[in-house]
Specification:
Elements: H1 2-11, H2 18-26, H3 38-62, H4 70-77, H5 79-83, H6 90-101, H7 110-125, H8 127-143, H9 150-166, H10 169-187, H11 201-251, H12 258-267, H13 272-299
Length: 300
């Protein structure tokens, strides 16, 4: 039955695109042992989840259009690709991925990390063919990098042959159910609590909340201060109106523009010649504007 399922996955042409089928046929698959222990299969499946989480995070951040940073993002979020790590429990791999998602990327958000895990569960529901397609996209991302392409030879290519030949849809479905149960427990606060991540998330959230509250109170105080300042300024304006009237009478005789008077006061010189320069500049611009019209008339 296992060989029948693997043959169906490898020969199916309705699901994979022609490019994906050609890529699957051209990959230099390594030789893997025919038989493996259940503990080894479990560790390999958990490592596959680790890679899928990194892929989903980058896929969401780039909207499915990988960038030059995508290879770094995938490798840095995956403990398997960046640290050759191995896992022996599902809770451990989920916790490690959440920690790395809160430390390394540009956008670090706990809810985003949990959303990525929910999307990984959706991928597992689509069985092996969807997993193979995701790994092919990871392979394309790593191939664009000058150094991360080695991850394909070490992990992605062996995973592709292992999933096609040694993994069944029943194993994927069982792993999906276990992941969904774990995520439901995390939402209810039974497992994978923020305290267990060792990043002091609750303290950081409390500090941010206190900072926002202080900002709101300070803005209220500033509004009250502004109103009092307006009242005091209105009273001072009344007292200075009489003194400004005298200055305005003296300025009315000066017919120069305001900016000219200001520059005269600052540098102590006369700027009357600036008006003449501006008039000459306007005349030159008018003459240049007429030149294209003359050119059009000549071409006609």
């Amino acid at each position: 039955q296992r060989h029948h399922e693997t043959d169906e996955t490898s020969t199916s042409t309705s699901f994979f695109t022609p490019e994906e089928s050609a890529q699957l046929a051209s990959i230099p698959y390594p030789l893997l042992p025919a038989n493996s222990l259940p503990e080894q299969d479990e560790s390999l499946l958990l490592g596959m989840l680790d890679i899928l989480f990194a892929y989903v995070n980058d896929h969401i951040m780039t909207d499915g259009d990988p960038t030059i940073e995508s290879s770094w993002t995938v490798c840095i979020l995956s403990s398997t690709l960046s640290w050759l790590d191995e896992f022996d429990s599902l809770e451990l791999v989920v916790g490690h991925c959440i920690r790395r998602a809160l430390i390394y990327p540009y956008l670090r958000n706990y809810e985003l990390a949990m959303y990525c895990w929910n999307q990984v569960a959706c991928i597992l529901k689509q069985k092996r063919r969807c997993i193979i397609r995701c790994l092919l996209q990871v392979r394309n991302i790593l191939n664009r990098s000058e150094c991360h392409y080695l991850g394909n030879r070490l992990f992605i290519d062996p995973y592709l042959v292992w999933i096609q030949r040694h993994v069944t849809d029943a194993q994927v479905s069982s792993l999906c159910r276990r992941l969904e149960i774990l995520l439901e427990g995390a939402e209810q606060g039974k497992v994978l609590q923020k305290e267990s991540l060792g990043l002091d998330l609750l303290k950081l959230e409390q500090l941010i909340q206190e900072g926002s509250d202080d900002g709101g109170s300070s803005s209220g105080e500033s509004e009250n201060g502004d109103s009092s300042e307006e009242e005091s300024s209105s009273s001072s304006d009344d007292s200075t109106d009489s003194s400004t009237d005298i200055n305005e009478d003296s300025r009315c005789n000066d017919q120069r523009p305001a900016f000219t008077r200001l520059l005269d006061d600052e540098i102590g010189g006369s700027m009357l010649s600036l008006d003449k320069r501006l008039e000459n500049l306007n005349l030159q611009m008018d003459t240049k504007a007429e030149e294209p019209k003359k050119l059009v008339e000549e071409l006609n």
